[in-house]
Amino acid sequence: MTPPVKPCRARLIVFEGAEGVGKTTQAARLADALRDAGKPTVIVREPGATWLGEKIRGLLLDSHVEVDTRAEVLLFLAARAQLAPDVRAHLAAGTTVIADRFVLSTYAYQVAGRGLPADLVHYANTLAAGDLVPDLTVLLSLPGGLARKQASGVRQDRIESAGVDFHERVAAAFAVCVTPEWQAEHPECGPIIAVDGSGSERAVGARVRAAITSQWDDML
Could you tell me which residues come within 8 angstroms of residue 136 by beta carbon, excluding any fewer than 6 positions away? Predict the structure, then answer.
């Protein structure tokens, strides 16, 4: 006999972290688990998930294209502005949305990594995302994630090849984002919970599930 499906409102769950931490893998694992539990679920990625977003993604990640720092953040936000209505529509229809990156990446990569003014980025993001706030951001941490990705032999994109100093600033920014003080100052990012990304995919997946169920007992 099939167990009854727990009633659950649709939520926006975001996966974040530095390069090579396993976001995409764990986002897919969680989506599969939610679908198995009878919860309608879709995955989106930033930039991407729309026709315009995928075109922008191609430009932003192309290692042969030079992109000014200010143009970079505006392209990311344009992709977000195009995606946000789709996310709202999914949520309104009762479908949980799992996003591979969202607002937090802008603070880590463009503010901390590129050195853009946080206040200007904040206002621009408000225009792009509006009142769309994640219900939870799962921040995966894995020291040496980029090195692991590089060792896999996969060709680096423009962001991945930005340099060691850049990626150290990004990683440091993500570490600060989990503090209560930072989260209190950035309500547009929603609650953020850190999850250890080391070990097997299955072990990390179990930690992710524990993080989700610690917030809501109706999800899984």
Answer: 11, 13, 14, 190, 191, 192, 193, 211, 212, 215
Q: How many residues does the structure list for the chain?
A: 220
Q: In the predicted model, is pLDDT for residue 1 greater than 80?
A: no
The residue assigned the tokens 């896999």 is: 152
Q: Parallel, antiparallel, or unpaired: how do β-strands 136-141 and 192-196 relate?
A: parallel
Amino acid at 211: A
Report the distance separating Cα 105 and Cα 60, nearest Å. Answer: 14
State the pLDDT confidence band at 187, using cuts at 50, 70 and 90. Answer: very high
Do 120 and 183 meet the contact criterion of CB atoms below 8 Å apart?
A: no
Domain spans of the chain?
12-215
CATH, domain range 12-215: 3.40.50.300
Q: What is the DSSP letter of 188?
A: G
SS3 state of residue 196: strand
> Rounded to two decimals, what is the model's pTM?
0.92
Strand order in the sheet with 12-16: 41-45, 96-100, 12-16, 136-141, 192-196
Short-list 30, 40, 54, 37, CA closest to 89 = 40
- Could you give the 3-state DSSP secondary structure of residue 105? helix
